[in-house]
Design a protein that fits this description.
The protein has about 150 residues and is α+β, with helices and mostly antiparallel strands. Helices cover about 50% and strands about 20% of the residues.
Length: about 150
């Protein structure tokens, strides 16, 4: 009985620490976003990592879509921080090609492609659809399976 209580306290403590560190990471992200927003518009792209490292990129751009500054957040843990993303200043976000991203790993390239797609959507007057959370995705898949069985 005492062992179960110790385990529960340990798990609860780990959960609280994770929440605290996650809050600090979001606060840091927001601070970096505000800095970029003071420079110009900000295009954001993301490639969520499920079991691997994810990536988030932010590009401060001018009215013509020229990249003024670029930042990245990449890592597996909540300890990852925003860092300068080199090699993109002076280029046009809409015109980035795979040769511009040769120095980037795959999750980072995917996040950059997502930022390009989001930028194109916004400049054409569209809205960026919200991606469902992992739990919502599971529920939607289960709902489709139930509907398919009824058909």
């Amino acid at each position: 009985m005492l062992e179960m209580l110790e385990l529960a306290i340990f798990i609860g403590g780990a959960f609280i620490i994770q929440q605290l560190l996650g809050f600090i990471q979001i606060k840091h992200f927001t601070k970096e976003y505000v800095k970029l927003r003071k420079i110009g518009k900000v295009a954001i792209g993301r490639r969520p990592g499920k079991l691997r490292a994810g990536a988030i990129v932010m590009f401060a751009i001018n009215q013509a879509g020229k990249i003024l500054e670029a930042k990245k957040l990449q890592g597996v843990t909540i300890l990852a921080r925003m860092k300068k993303l080199e090699g993109f200043e002076g280029k046009y976000l809409n015109r980035l090609t795979s040769s511009d991203m040769v120095h980037c790993n795959k999750p980072l390239r995917m996040a950059i492609e997502d930022a390009k797609k989001n930028y194109r959507t916004v400049i054409t007057g569209g809205t960026i659809p919200e991606k469902p959370s992992p739990l919502k995705s599971i529920l939607l898949k289960a709902e489709k399976m139930v509907v398919a069985k009824k058909s």
